[in-house]
Amino acid sequence: MAILKDIYQTTTEGNHAAIKDLVKKAVDEGIAPQKIITEALSKAMVDVGDKFGTGELYMPDMLLAAKTMKEAMGILKPLLKEEGEGAARGVLVIGTVKGDLHDIGKNLVITMAEGQGFKVIDLGIDVDYPKFVEAIKAHNPDIVAFSGLLTTTLANVPDHIKVIEEAGLRNKVVLAVGGAPATRDFADRHGIEIYADDASTAAKEFVKVVEKV
Ligand code: B12
After folding, report:
1. Which domains does the chain have, with CATH numbers?
2. pLDDT per position as a tens digit, 83-109
3. CA of 78 to the centre of ligand 1 (A)
């Protein structure tokens, strides 16, 4: 479909000023919001993420693409809600760890996860330990994800996990971690199932979790 191709192209180019009209046009043509997300928007984000990984695109390109996708999601999200929560592919609770104020990477992960059809509960930045427990109880997520950008605050992740364990909720969720100082080794040492160093890989890993269930 030509319009989906245009949406894909516009998103890869990060042309956030043009995206709303295209998405509205696609909706008017009767294309399902989920189809617009999976076949145009997230495909574009995955390709932009891959090109960022190979050095063909740079961080500003990725941020512009994310901004474009966010504009599009502003139109599509209310329509997805009309389809009901059952339409969600899975539920993700995410927050930046205690003491840490960085959220650009977390927000990119959220955009990509939403693009893959996840319902996302964003706990924000500097999330205190009990907040994750409260969110797990309230939203019954498939995945709980920690974002940490400082070496010092990433060190709080084991304490976040301990609090979740003490609440008896650890075996109910798959854990994920990311952020510049995080590594696969860090994740393994703390029994965290998912580690990814970029948002598109993170979203791909989230999809693997819910498709296995
Ligand atoms: C922008 C920035 C800030 C902004 C944050 C604005 C915001 N709204 O986020 C501001 C100015 C507020 C800031 C403050 C500070 N910062 Co700062 N900041 C940065 C900077 C330049 C960029 C971070 C960023 O947004 N990157 C772009 C995003 C897209 O990348 P990302 O966050 O890594 O996320 C990607 C992946 O990591 C992954 N990912 C992220 N989260 C998750 C989660 C999951 C679950 C998964 C799977 C994947 C994943 O996917 C993302 C997208 O691909 C970094 C430099 C760097 N190299 O990271 C320093 C940096 C992180 N900051 C640093 C420091 C020291 C600070 C301050 C302590 C400075 C100070 N003295 O006040 C304060 C700390 C405040 C606090 N308590 O948090 C240091 C940390 C050093 C360290 N190892 O601990 C860095 C590395 C700079 C440096 N080289 O010294 N900072």
Report:
1. 1-87 (1.10.1240.10), 88-213 (3.40.50.280)
2. 544 567 899 999 999 999 998 889 889
3. 31
